[in-house]
From TrEMBL:
<feature type="transmembrane region" description="Helical">
    <location>
        <begin position="297"/>
        <end position="320"/>
    </location>
</feature>
<feature type="transmembrane region" description="Helical">
    <location>
        <begin position="234"/>
        <end position="253"/>
    </location>
</feature>
<keyword id="KW-1133">Transmembrane helix</keyword>
<dbReference type="InterPro" id="IPR003689">
    <property type="entry name" value="ZIP"/>
</dbReference>
<feature type="transmembrane region" description="Helical">
    <location>
        <begin position="6"/>
        <end position="26"/>
    </location>
</feature>
<keyword id="KW-0812">Transmembrane</keyword>
<dbReference type="GO" id="GO:0016020">
    <property type="term" value="C:membrane"/>
</dbReference>
<dbReference type="GO" id="GO:0005385">
    <property type="term" value="F:zinc ion transmembrane transporter activity"/>
</dbReference>
<dbReference type="Pfam" id="PF02535">
    <property type="entry name" value="Zip"/>
</dbReference>
<keyword id="KW-0472">Membrane</keyword>
<keyword id="KW-0175">Coiled coil</keyword>
<feature type="transmembrane region" description="Helical">
    <location>
        <begin position="92"/>
        <end position="110"/>
    </location>
</feature>
<feature type="transmembrane region" description="Helical">
    <location>
        <begin position="265"/>
        <end position="285"/>
    </location>
</feature>
<feature type="transmembrane region" description="Helical">
    <location>
        <begin position="361"/>
        <end position="379"/>
    </location>
</feature>
<protein>
    <submittedName>
        <fullName>Uncharacterized protein</fullName>
    </submittedName>
</protein>
<feature type="transmembrane region" description="Helical">
    <location>
        <begin position="38"/>
        <end position="60"/>
    </location>
</feature>
<feature type="transmembrane region" description="Helical">
    <location>
        <begin position="326"/>
        <end position="349"/>
    </location>
</feature>
Length: 380
C-alpha cells in the first residue's frame, strides 16, 4: 500500500508541474484562450465546492480524530497535555480548529494585505477599458474647449484655431510643462498692463489672456493623463508577479495537504481537487502575463516555472512532515484546512459569484464539486 501511495504522489508531482506550465503557456500561443474567462469561472466554482467539502468533510474531521488519539496516548506529566485540558474534565482545547483559523488568517494576510492581488488584478483587467475610453475623454475635453470659445467674437475663434494647432498631444511632459508656465505667465502679466493700454489693446490682451488660460487647461489635463497612464502601466506590470507569489503560497499548502495523505482513496480525492483548481489558476496567470509581458518570453517562463514547482515542493514537504510525530501531522493538516477554506470562500466564491454572468451555472458547478466529495466519502 505504501509503495502504491508513493507512486501516485510521484506521478502527481510530475503531472501537476507539467499541467500547470502547459495551462499557463496556452494563452500566449492560442488566442481563444484569452477569452475563456467564463469557462475558467465555472471551473473555479467547481473547485471551490471541492475544496470546501474536502476541508469540512475530510481534513478537519481526520485532524480532530488524530489529535484526540494523540492526546489520549500522552501522560498527564506532559506539560502541554495539562495546558490543553479544559479544567478537570477530559476535554481538550480544539487545537485543530484553532490552527484552521490560523491557516485562514495567514493566507488572508498574504493575499489581501501584503500583496493585495485582487486590487492589482482588477486594475489590470480594467486597463483595456480605460484605454478605450481615452479617446472619448479627449473628445469631451475638446467639446468643452469649443463651448468656451463660442462666447468670444470671430477674432477669438480664429485665435483659438491657431492655438489648437500649436498644441501637440504627442509632446513630452517637459515640453508641455514649459509651455504651461509661459502661457500662465502671459495671462497674469495681462492683468498688470491692461489698465495702461487703450481700448483696442485691452481687447487684444483680453483675448490672448483667455486663450492662454484655455491652453493651460488643456495642457494640464494632458500632463495628468500622462502621469496616470505611467502609474497604471507600472501597476499592471507587477500584477502577474504578485499573482504568481500568492498562487504559489496557496499551492504549497495544497501540496502539503496532499503529501500528508496516507490512504489511497483520500489521495485520489486530493489529486482531483488540486488538479481542477491548478489548471484554472495557471490559465488565469497566463492571461495576465500575456497582457503585461508580450515580448518578455524569458520572464514568462520564469514566472510559470516558479508557479508550476510550488505544488510539487508542497507535496515533498508534506511527505517529510508525515514521517514526524502525529502532532506535527495535525498541525500542518489543520493549517492546510484553513487554506482550503480560504480558497473556497474568500477567493473562489466571492470573486466568481460577484460576476453577474452564469451565476446559476456556477452554483450548479459549485454544488456538483461538493457532491462529488460527499459521494467519494461514502465510497471510501
Amino acid at each position: 500500500m505504501a509503495s502504491i501511495i508513493l507512486i501516485i504522489k510521484a506521478t502527481f508531482i510530475i503531472g501537476i508541474a507539467i499541467m500547470a506550465f502547459v495551462a499557463g503557456i496556452l494563452p500566449t500561443i492560442i488566442p481563444w484562450c484569452k477569452g475563456s474567462a467564463n469557462v475558467l469561472g465555472i471551473a473555479n466554482a467547481f473547485s471551490g465546492g471541492v475544496f470546501l467539502a474536502i476541508a469540512f468533510l475530510h481534513i478537519m474531521p481526520e485532524a480532530t480524530e488524530e489529535f484526540s488519539q494523540f492526546m489520549e496516548n500522552q501522560s498527564e506529566s506532559d506539560g502541554y497535555v495539562s495546558w490543553l485540558k479544559h479544567g478537570n474534565d477530559d476535554s481538550f482545547f480544539p487545537l485543530p480548529f484553532a490552527l484552521t483559523f490560523v491557516g485562514y488568517a495567514i493566507i488572508l494576510l498574504i493575499d489581501k494585505v501584503v500583496f493585495d492581488t485582487h486590487s492589482l488584478v482588477k486594475d489590470h483587467e480594467s486597463g483595456a477599458y480605460h484605454q478605450r475610453d481615452s479617446s472619448k475623454n479627449v473628445e469631451f475635453e475638446m467639446e468643452e474647449y469649443n463651448e468656451l470659445n463660442k462666447e468670444t467674437n470671430n477674432r477669438k475663434d480664429s485665435l483659438k484655431n491657431k492655438v489648437n494647432n500649436e498644441i501637440d498631444e504627442d509632446e513630452g511632459p517637459q515640453r508641455i510643462q514649459t509651455k504651461f508656465v509661459a502661457k500662465l505667465d502671459h495671462a497674469l502679466n495681462w492683468s498688470n498692463t491692461s489698465q495702461k493700454s487703450d481700448s483696442s489693446h485691452q481687447n487684444d490682451d483680453l483675448e490672448n489672456g483667455i486663450a492662454g488660460l484655455l491652453i493651460t487647461k488643456k495642457e494640464n489635463s494632458l500632463l495628468q493623463r500622462d502621469h496616470k497612464h505611467k502609474k497604471k502601466r507600472c501597476a499592471c506590470n507587477l500584477a502577474p508577479i504578485i499573482l504568481c507569489m500568492a498562487l504559489s503560497v496557496h499551492s504549497i499548502f495544497e501540496g502539503i495537504a496532499t503529501g500528508l495523505i496516507k490512504e489511497e482513496s483520500g489521495l485520489w480525492t486530493f489529486v482531483m481537487a488540486i488538479g481542477a483548481h491548478k489548471w484554472a489558476a495557471a490559465m488565469s496567470l497566463g492571461i495576465s502575463m500575456t497582457k503585461n509581458f508580450k515580448d518578455q518570453v524569458g520572464t514568462m517562463i520564469i514566472v510559470l516555472t516558479i508557479f508550476s514547482l510550488a505544488t510539487p515542493i508542497g507535496v515533498l514537504l508534506g511527505m517529510i512532515v508525515a514521517t514526524q510525530s502525529a502532532i506535527v501531522d495535525v498541525i500542518f493538516s489543520s493549517l492546510a484546512a484553513g487554506t482550503f477554506v480560504y480558497i473556497a470562500c474568500s477567493e473562489v466564491i466571492v470573486e466568481e459569484f460577484s460576476v453577474p454572468k452564469y451565476r446559476w451555472v456556477k452554483m450548479f458547478s459549485f454544488l456538483s464539486g461538493a457532491t462529488l466529495i460527499v459521494i467519494l466519502g461514502f465510497l471510501e
